[in-house]
């Protein structure tokens, strides 16, 4: 029997088996006027490390919030672990706890995420909300603080931390819940090079441990390390290409069209005298 | 017509050199910092003070070692005792006790006294001083200032005594509260409130208000500094200035709304459904029980000493 197209509870017929997330034709607009997603369809498989690439305002963060069930598409369907995710379904306590314990979200702005009185309380928040007992939660918090090298900051207030430390606390507060899927919004944004490198290593390590990772970025220089597949957004809020990082980085026309690199004339005076030509900038600091 | 694919041309005026500042200082005039600037600077200083206070809370002093619940209950008892005292002598003795506790807890006394006396009693004095004048309350005029219908008018002994009593009461009470907050890290203080049975949602709300006040203070500071960096002439207090302040307030409200939404989403993302669960408070030690008993004895001593002084 053919699947009923209006039956949104069942997975779409073309959904791959065992997919973690299945999105079909997602539409979303802020204030019903400013489009953020326009017909976005994607599948995320277990163990994948997927990078959402695109210019500012193309819809990456909105998609991540949809994948975390924080906002809901105006049309289209989103299935997680084979179940339809809607506002109504998330009202159900059992479904909500199951979903929240399996999906963790690290926000771009750590200040929004790090709201507790101390680092210890912050890291404990998630696992206590999901029903872990105080003893087990305490043990997990201690383990996580040690893993993230945050022990010396355990009793510090969040406003006493640097940007990099806040990011570490935000990641620890999500990792402590041991979710299967980790969503990161611009994880390397506004971090110093050493913290960026540490974070890239952490993402690789978590992925190697079996975690599914989806992150939004327009940082191309660590892409090959932190992604096994890329989804490129156009500035029209649509996914225009899905490919490996190597394929994406090799496609200059695509990168230019998606506003991920720029092209401009400039001079090289230090090494070769004054020669003017045009080229793309996949990395920062090229002209130093 | 300009080619749509070509980069926009730089306006000619942007390429001209700006008018240099005259080194002789003939342009404009020197002005003191405005009230708004001083308020913002004060807010920023307060933020640094709070950060400094956390350092005090980490010193190995007596109060720092106590369970926050004991400190909260002890402070409440002493506040009630001070509030019920009617003699300046009693209040002076209580103040000496607070200073002793501060010294014992390794708090720099100059910093502690300045923090209390520079602000709050000054505002209290502004409120209570009118009551010291004979035109407000009858009494024996001891400082003659003017004559009204043949009667001497000025400061009365009763009024000055009442004002001094209230100012001392406020000073001791504020000193107690400041001592509690600077010797207890904010997180432990909130744990103490939780341990005393204050609902977790209220504790979380207090915590988040405290946490984000600083963030918003930073936002206000940034907005003000960005405006100041573009300000060439002295600020006029006209309709345009009011409109700018109004726009800034509107922007800040918008930022607050956005931040509140993001914080809520961050909580929901980690399983928050309206009820907050938290790690349990620590257990009390022998020193805490002794401190609890001492605070009861001290509160009783203040009250009985005050009663012995009569009146």
Task: Describe, in plain words, how this protein is organized in 3D.
The complex is a heterodimer of chains A (288) and B (311). Chain A has eleven helices and twelve strands. Chain A is an alpha/beta fold and 288 residues long. In chain A, the strands form three sheets. Chain A has a six-stranded mixed sheet with strand order 6-7-8-3-9-10, with helices on both faces. In chain A, strands 2-1-4-5 form a four-stranded antiparallel sheet, covered by helices on one side. A two-stranded antiparallel sheet of chain A has the order 11-12. The longest helix of chain A is centred in the C-terminal third of the chain and has 16 residues, at 193-208. Chain B has 311 residues and is mainly α. Chain B contains twelve helices and two strands. Chain B has helices at 12-15, 35-57, 62-65, 68-84, 88-104, 109-117, 120-128, 157-182, 186-195, 200-229, 239-269, 286-308, and strands at 141-148, 151-156. In chain B, strand 1 and strand 2 form a beta hairpin. In chain B, helix 4 (68-84) packs across helix 9, helix 6 (109-117) crosses helix 8 (157-182) and helix 9 packs antiparallel against helix 10. Classes of the chains: A alpha/beta (288), B mainly alpha (311). The interface between A and B is large, with 42 and 34 residues.
């Amino acid at each position: 029997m053919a699947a009923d197209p209006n039956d949104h509870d069942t997975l779409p017929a073309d959904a791959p088996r065992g997919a973690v997330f299945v999105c079909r034709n997602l539409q979303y607009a802020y204030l019903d006027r400013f489009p953020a997603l326009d017909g976005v369809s994607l599948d995320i498989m277990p163990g994948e490390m997927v990078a959402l690439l695109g210019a500012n305002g193309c819809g990456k963060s909105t998609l991540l919030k949809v994948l975390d069930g924080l906002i809901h598409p105006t049309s289209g369907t989103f299935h997680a672990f084979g179940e339809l995710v809607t506002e109504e379904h998330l009202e159900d306590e059992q479904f909500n706890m199951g979903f929240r314990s399996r999906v963790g979200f690290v926000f771009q702005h750590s200040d929004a995420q790090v709201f507790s009185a101390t680092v210890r309380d912050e890291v404990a928040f998630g696992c206590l909300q999901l029903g872990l007992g105080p003893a087990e939660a305490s043990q997990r918090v201690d383990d996580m603080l040690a893993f993230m090298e945050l022990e010396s900051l355990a009793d510090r207030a969040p406003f006493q931390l640097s940007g990099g430390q806040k990011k570490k606390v935000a990641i620890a507060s999500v990792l402590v819940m041991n979710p299967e899927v980790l969503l990161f919004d611009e994880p390397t944004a506004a971090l110093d090079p050493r913290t960026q490198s540490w974070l890239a290593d952490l993402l690789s390590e978590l992925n190697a441990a079996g975690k599914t990772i989806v992150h939004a970025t327009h940082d191309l220089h660590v892409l090959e390390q932190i992604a096994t597949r890329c989804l490129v957004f156009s500035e029209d809020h649509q996914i225009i290409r899905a490919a490996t990082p190597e394929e994406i980085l090799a496609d200059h026309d695509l990168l230019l069209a998606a506003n991920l690199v720029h092209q401009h004339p400039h001079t090289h005076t230090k090494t070769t005298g004054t020669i003017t030509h045009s080229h793309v900038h996949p990395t920062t600091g090229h002209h130093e | 017509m300009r080619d749509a694919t070509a980069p926009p041309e730089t306006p000619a005026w942007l390429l001209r050199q700006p008018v240099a500042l005259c080194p002789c200082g003939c342009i404009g005039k020197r002005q003191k910092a405005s009230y708004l600037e001083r308020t913002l600077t004060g807010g920023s200083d307060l933020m640094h003070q709070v950060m400094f206070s956390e350092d005090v809370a980490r010193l190995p002093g007596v109060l720092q070692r106590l369970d926050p619940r004991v400190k909260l209950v002890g402070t409440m008892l002493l506040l009630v005792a001070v509030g019920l005292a009617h003699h300046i002598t009693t209040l002076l003795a209580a103040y000496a006790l607070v200073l002793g506790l501060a010294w014992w807890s390794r708090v720099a006394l100059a910093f502690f006294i300045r923090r209390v006396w520079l602000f709050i009693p000054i505002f209290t004095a502004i409120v209570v001083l009118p009551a010291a004048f004979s035109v407000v309350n009858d009494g024996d005029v001891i400082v003659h200032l003017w004559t009204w219908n043949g009667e001497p008018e000025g400061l009365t002994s009763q009024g000055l005594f009442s004002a001094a009593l209230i100012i001392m009461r406020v000073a001791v009470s504020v000193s107690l509260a400041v001592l509690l907050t600077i010797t207890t890290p904010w997180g432990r203080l909130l744990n103490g409130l939780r341990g005393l049975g204050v609902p977790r949602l209220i504790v979380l709300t207090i915590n988040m208000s405290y946490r984000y006040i600083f963030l918003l203070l930073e936002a206000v500071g940034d907005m003000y500094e960005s405006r100041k960096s573009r300000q060439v002439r002295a600020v006029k207090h006209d309709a345009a200035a009011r409109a700018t302040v109004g726009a800034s307030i509107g922007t800040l409200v918008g930022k607050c709304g956005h931040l509140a939404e993001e914080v809520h989403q961050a909580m929901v993302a980690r399983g928050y459904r309206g009820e907050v669960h938290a790690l349990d408070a620590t257990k009390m030690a022998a020193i805490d029980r002794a401190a609890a008993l001492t605070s009861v004895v001290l509160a009783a001593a203040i009250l009985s000493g005050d009663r012995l002084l009569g009146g």
